[in-house]
Design goal:
By secondary structure, this protein is α/β, with parallel strands linked by helices. The protein has 16 helices and 11 strands. Helices cover 44% and strands 16% of the residues. Helix 3 runs parallel beside helix 7 and helix 13 packs across helix 15.
């Protein structure tokens, strides 16, 4: 009986030690002291505000930078859209940035590059940006800039297509082009079927290997036709358009949400960006509008989420290629307000956003890149799709634009 009691006691002690170790490994880390960071208070995010003295910090932060990535934590952050529009106007007027590239379909933007009318964003951007009031203000500004000595040029660099109601337009544009070349889309049945099924995820998933052989043969023939002289800008657009179908086919064969799919998309987007940056916009200063998910670099800095440590982002690829010429600004927030004016998704006490909220910042910018005080230690932040993640954020982005409360697109945002 005595031995049984001893064994039970020893077992209980072992279990207690184990539980303490588990608790210690999973307990929340000490909150970061946000007050020790280099913080610039932002007076306004209104894209119609003409007073810009609160943005003077950009002169120092972006010194000698040719590429600025402007992220966003979620794709329904109207206040981030407004702040980004205001920053873009400042960078154009004060710092000579004249190119704006979007994480949106490359080929719609190239088709419509000479149609900078009031519907341009509807024809070239994803709907969460195309329908944004702030992006409408941005488009107005881009149109006005065309009369200046340094007009803003725009393009998309995503391999995806808008699809939706544009399939008829894809077919008409493609067939019209091929007829000019003495051919017809009917001569390329697999390509035609691909265009007709741009919106059909099921179709792409069940493409067979022999379908890929047919796609490869047709695409090779189409690209070769595009390159036949006389060769002009439209031929370049369509050569890229046809070649992209192979990338699009591979992309949509990959499992939805898989790391492989994310990796492939970001690798192609980085390739398209580099092609534009070197061949079309050489020597110009570029702003890139995209999600934080793609802008963040060095995802090995996540402490607890091993899945995310294997995602080589668009931003990381640009950092590798263009080194210190790239500066990444990500956006984050303390909480969200939904369309019913309910506060949701508050940041927890251990997070960077909670600390900024406690310091009573409404809008602020934190320059990680030029911070020589704080050591490179991990802390919790929700800059990646509102997920609270423990990471060495200073090695993943150069600066953070903090917005206390995020409003959805239907809200007034000033």
């Amino acid at each position: 009986m005595l031995n049984l009691i001893k064994r039970t006691a020893i077992l209980l002690v072992i279990m207690l030690i184990y539980c303490l170790c588990v608790w210690k490994s999973f307990r929340m880390p000490e909150p970061v002291d946000a007050s020790t960071f280099k913080i610039a208070n932002i007076a306004s995010i209104s894209c119609s505000d003409t007073i810009t003295t609160d943005l003077l910090f950009l002169q120092q932060s972006l010194k000698d930078k040719n590429i600025v990535l402007l992220g966003e934590d979620i794709h329904d952050n109207e206040r981030a859209f407004s702040a980004k529009t205001r920053i873009i106007k400042y960078l154009h007027q004060k710092m000579g940035y004249s190119v704006l590239l979007f994480e949106s379909p490359r080929f719609e933007s190239e088709w419509h590059q000479n149609e900078l009318d009031s519907n341009y964003f509807q024809k070239t951007l994803w709907e969460f940006w195309a329908n944004s009031p702030s992006c409408k203000t941005l488009l107005d500004y881009i149109q006005q800039s065309q009369k200046s000595s340094k007009p803003i040029k725009t393009r998309g660099f995503d391999l995806q297509f808008l699809g939706n109601n544009n399939i008829k337009q894809y077919i008409e544009l493609t067939d019209t082009y091929l007829q000019k070349k003495g051919s017809s889309l009917s001569h390329y049945p697999v390509t035609k079927k691909m265009i007709q099924n741009i919106n059909s995820y099921r179709y792409w998933v069940f493409l067979q290997d022999d379908d890929f052989d047919s796609i490869q043969n047709e695409i090779s023939s189409l690209v070769e036709m595009c390159h036949k002289p006389p060769f002009n800008n439209q031929d370049t657009v369509f050569a890229n358009y046809f070649a992209n179908f192979m990338n699009y086919a591979r992309f949509n064969k990959m499992q939805w949400g898989s790391n492989e799919r994310f990796q492939f998309r970001d690798s192609v987007m980085a390739s398209y960006f580099s092609d534009m940056y070197t061949s079309i916009y050489a020597g110009e200063k570029v702003v890139v509008w995209l999600a934080n998910l793609h802008a963040l670099h060095d995802d090995t800095q996540y402490v607890e989420n091993a899945k995310m440590n294997h995602f080589k982002t668009f931003g990381e690829r640009l950092k590798e290629g263009y080194k210190d010429k790239v500066y990444t600004i990500c956006f984050t927030s303390y909480c969200n307000v939904n369309k019913n004016n309910r506060v949701i998704n508050k940041a927890t006490p251990a997070t960077f956003e909670y600390q900024m909220h406690q310091l009573n910042y409404r809008y602020a910018f934190v320059d990680f890149h030029n911070d020589t005080v704080n050591s490179d230690i991990p802390f919790r932040m929700r800059a990646n799709q509102n997920l609270i993640l423990n990471a060495n954020w200073k090695k993943m982005c150069d600066g953070i634009f903090y917005i206390d409360t995020v409003m959805q697109n239907s809200h007034e945002y000033n």
